[in-house]
Design a protein that fits this description.
Elements: H1 7-30, E1 34-36, E2 46-47, H2 49-55, E3 64-71, E4 77-85, E5 88-96, H3 98-115, H4 125-149, H5 157-176, H6 183-206, H7 215-239, H8 244-268, H9 272-296, H10 303-307, H11 311-325, H12 332-353, H13 361-383, H14 393-427, H15 438-445, E6 446-450, H16 453-459, E7 473-477
Antiparallel strand pairs: 1-3, 2-3, 3-4, 4-5, 6-7
Helix pairs in contact: 4-5, 4-7, 5-7, 6-7, 6-8, 6-9, 8-9, 8-12, 11-12, 11-14, 13-14, 13-15
Length: 485
């Protein structure tokens, strides 16, 4: 006997089968890849040609159209890049494991950070005016030295001396009036006018005879070289979009290289040509190393200030220790070699101290200011000490005071700098502007630097009309208050 399925049951079976098939196909549909963001906050899902021109994430694709980050059904990631080859759009799918994904997102965060205006390196109008006035005064000082150097000679330097303040002051006025001029530009401008002048003196000394060299001729070469270096430095800072931390690092290592090269030249040969050549080679190597380091990792605005804060202490520490132990048996060459070793070693300490930290400009300025204040306090302690205290204690007290000042200010800022580094990495934001305290403002606007020009007077006093009176330390304070924007 043949039986048939009731029509109602048959309809129910067909409905269940259709529903199951729909759910199965829908599950496959919903399990397809989905778009992921390049940033942790999920704001940037697609990078187009306009964004790529600013971020430079994919320079290997000349005709870039679009990039997307896709998450696959198995939770893996694929980078989709569309570019044009021979007028035909090409689609590339690049598998991204976890290290590659994290590296891509870190590159995106760092690239995005460079596009965000940095309020910390913006100069207030009063600071720009102070820069122009200060550099004009520097030009007057250079001209005055030139007038002294040309006294009693047939050199046409007096006319050149009159031009120095006009060229330096006028150039500075033009530079600070430009909308792109900021704290990074200021670093390169001042470095060119000071260290660049030393480069010019070294260039003159490289091809000169110490016995017949006219300081007036060397001085013109030095100042002219400084002006050229200042102009090139400002151009490079703007062209490469270097931040304050990067320009400070480059100039710091350039100056350190100059001292190291000059010291090595003195160790192996005491003649002027060797010292000058070593200074130029060392400075060039220092600039190159500084630029390479500035591109190899992210440098917050205050990092380079902390990185080099201990270098003056490293330079004077061997002299202080040797002066205390055996003041009458100091070998000059051994002293120079030891000083250079501890000076360069201070950078290793500085590199370790800024690791995984982002110091703001104000934090870095406060740390260097506290270090300088400590050094001056140690010097003042010697000056007010009883007359029977030996002069050998002067550098020791100064180095001790600087170390204490650095330790106190660094300890106060390190925890916040570490937290800021973690925040910047996650959010892709520029360094947070910290409202400066009174001490921060003083430290920011007061610059006490070791002056290589003073070494020329110590090593070769017979070449200079002012001899030993050239300053070893240069101190300058700008009476201005940075504006929080």
């Amino acid at each position: 006997m043949r039986t048939t399925m009731p029509s109602a049951l048959l309809c129910s079976f067909c409905l269940v089968a259709c529903l199951s098939g729909f759910l199965f196909s829908s599950g496959k549909l919903f399990a397809q890849e989905r778009q992921a963001a390049f940033d942790p906050e999920g704001k940037f899902l697609t990078i187009g040609p306009e964004q790529e021109r600013k971020l430079h994430l994919f320079p290997e694709y000349l005709n870039f159209l679009r990039a997307r980050l896709l998450q696959q059904p198995d939770s893996s990631y694929v980078l989709e890049v569309i570019h044009i080859v021979n007028d035909v759009p090409q689609r590339e799918m690049i598998a991204m494991d976890l290290p590659k994904l994290l590296a891509l997102r870190k590159r995106f965060v760092l690239a995005l950070r460079k596009t965000i205006p940095d309020v910390e390196i913006t100069l207030a109008d009063v600071e720009k005016v102070g820069t122009a006035v200060g550099n004009t005064a520097l030009g007057l000082g250079y001209g005055f030295v030139g007038l002294i150097a040309s006294a009693g000679s047939s050199s046409p330097l007096p006319a050149t001396s009159i031009m120095m303040p006009l060229i330096i002051g006028g150039g500075s006025i033009w530079a600070v009036s430009q909308p792109w001029f900021n704290r990074s530009s200021l670093v390169m401008l001042e470095n060119g006018l000071t260290i660049g002048t030393v480069h010019g003196l070294a260039l003159s000394g490289l091809f000169s005879n110490a016995q017949s060299t006219k300081f007036s001729d060397s001085w013109v070469t030095g100042v002219a070289t400084g002006v050229i270096e200042a102009a090139l430095g400002v151009y490079v800072a703007e062209k490469l979009q270097l931040n304050y931390g990067q320009t400070t690092l480059i100039t710091e290592l350039g100056t350190s290289g100059l001292l190291t090269g000059a010291g090595l030249g003195y160790i192996f040969s005491t003649n002027l040509n060797a010292v000058s050549g070593g200074a130029l080679l060392g400075s060039g190597a220092g600039f190159a190393a500084g630029y390479a380091l500035s591109q190899g990792q992210s440098w917050a605005n205050g990092d380079a200030l902390v990185f080099g804060a201990l270098s003056p202490i490293g330079l004077m520490l061997p002299t202080a220790l040797l002066a205390l132990s055996s003041p009458n048996a100091i070998d000059p060459k051994a002293l120079v070699a030891t000083s250079l070793a501890t000076h360069l070693g201070s950078y290793l300490v500085g590199s370790w101290l800024i690791n995984n930290k982002d110091f703001t400009y104000y934090q870095g300025a406060a740390i260097t200011g506290a270090t300088t204040l400590g050094m001056l306090t140690g010097l003042a302690a010697f000056l007010i000490s009883p007359p029977n205290v030996a002069v050998q204690y002067m550098l020791g007290l100064s180095a001790l005071g600087g170390t204490v000042g650095f330790a106190i200010s660094y300890g106060q800022a390190a925890a916040r700098a570490e937290l800021q580094a973690q925040t910047n990495l996650l959010e892709g934001a520029s360094s947070t502007l910290v409202t400066p305290s009174i001490f921060d403002e003083f430290a920011q606007n007061t610059k006490v630097e070791f002056s290589p020009v003073g070494l020329v007077g110590v090593a070769y006093p017979h070449l200079l009309p002012v001899g030993y009176s050239l300053p070893i330390l240069s101190i300058r304070h700008t009476f201005s208050t940075p504006k929080e924007r």
